[in-house]
Amino acid sequence: MEVLQFIIIILVASILQTSTGFGFSILATPFLLLLFEPTEAIQINLVLSLVISIALIMKIRNDIDFGILKRLVIGSATGLPIGIAVFLLMDINRLKFGVSLIVLILTIMLILKFRISQNQKRDLFVGGLSGSLTTSIGMPGPPLLLYFSGTDTQKAKLRGTTLAFYLWIYFISLIVQVIFAGTNQTIWISSGLALPIVLLGLFLGQLLFKWINQNVFRIFTYVILLFTGFLLLVESLR
């Protein structure tokens, strides 16, 4: 039963990541935490998310905003050490509880048409927040999704820029996690077994991306965030 659950989680999350530019870590991590220990769930997510980013980077390179990408990368450098310190020192349930509240509150703000103007300082701040969430819980997506949705960024530009950023943040975060939290065979065997499922999800996600218009895309982002926020909240209180 756990194997079937694992397959469904990876497939759905891969499709979502490929079609929207978000979704794998946001959707997969909460469910993987139900099947694996925190270190295992986070590192499996990082490995598979990195594979997805590598597989897609050439296809979306023309959609990347390199100015924003540079600032996100610079900002993330401050968040990475903070995130791993939080992961090592803080109770995982308290961490999930805090993240769930942030996600839910900010998503409600977006649904209520809250908008924020984009500037260089905010790019750096969002990059730092995303970096800290990646090394702490393996989820860089919420800050980026909330930020870019709030600025009405077009879906192609959003997907391209975030996937390029993920290529950096997942690689560095995986190294940081392995060095400071350790690793084990379960992580790498499970990741290897999931690769064919990820490839299938990539194919299906590319097809879905062509069919999604901007309004449907916005609804997708709200559903993803609300679902993740509630799931993390429930997990943290169990």
What does this structure look like?
By secondary structure, the protein is an all-alpha fold. It has one domain. Helix content is 86%, strand content 0%. The chain contains ten helices and no strands. The radius of gyration is 16 Å and the shape is globular. The mean pLDDT is 83.
- The overall pLDDT, averaged over residues, is 83
Query: Total number of β-strand segments?
Result: 0
Helix percentage range:
over 70%
Strand content: under 5%
User: Biggest β-sheet, characterized?
Assistant: none
Estimated structural class: mainly alpha
Order of secondary-structure elements = HHHHHHHHHH
Distance between the termini: 22 Å
Helical stretch count? 10
Number of domains: 1
Regions with little confidence, pLDDT below 50 for 5+ residues: none
Morphology call: globular
Keywords: Cell membrane, Membrane, Transmembrane, Transmembrane helix, Transport
Main location: membrane
Subcellular location: Cell membrane
Protein name: Probable membrane transporter protein
Brief summary:
This protein has 238 residues and is an all-alpha fold. Helix content is 86%, strand content 0%.
